[in-house]
Amino acid sequence: MKISVLTLFPKIIESYLNESIMKKATEKTQLEFEIVDIRLYSPYRHNQVDEYQFGGGKGMVLMPEPIILALESIKTDKSIVCMTTPQGKVWTQTKAKIFANKYEHIILLCGHYEGFDERIRKYVDVELSIGDFVLTGGELASLVIVDSIVRLLPGVIAVDSHMQESFENNLLDYPVYTKPIDFRGDLVPEVLLSGHHANILKFREEQALINTIKKRPDLINEVTLTESQLKLLKQIKK
Fold it and tell me: Looking at the domain that runs over 166-237, which CATH code has it been given?
């Protein structure tokens, strides 16, 4: 897989991709990162990339030429072009899995200022948002998307870790504990110290359900619950 990020601020992207899991991913897999500086493709003086909007209004708008020229320099018939914008479809774990398994070349276009000239959207396959809020620029959103995809690629982290995470089966993850057993009188649940795997599994399933009900009850409607989970659900709601 190849992931290309088109940005006005390459150092922001570079600093993150050269650390931790992202760096290990490029060393352990066939993953390739590409950072494209949009300013280098500007046909205007001083590498201009933005201009005042027609019709008046506050804020500068990203111009089509620099972005489209940068995009055309790297795009192939195997590329999917993604624009990060608050107007896009909300990014989810399900979408991360689809992108991780389906696409060979993902291009992420980072916005800035007041937004993109509308004509740029004609060159975009999908608009993506990481939530209903506005950021100063699209770099953080792009990195969130990149991270969520890369960690799902084979060989990056253990498959078992994926299966036990939040949003698997539309449930949040169960609570986890480590040393010390007693922290200021707050004890690790005894069942986790018992070595009884069946009881531990049951406890974790119950805690995942409780976590979801307390923190994200909206997810429960998407879950196909077992008989034991339905029984537990009734007990919690009492």
Answer: 1.10.1270.20
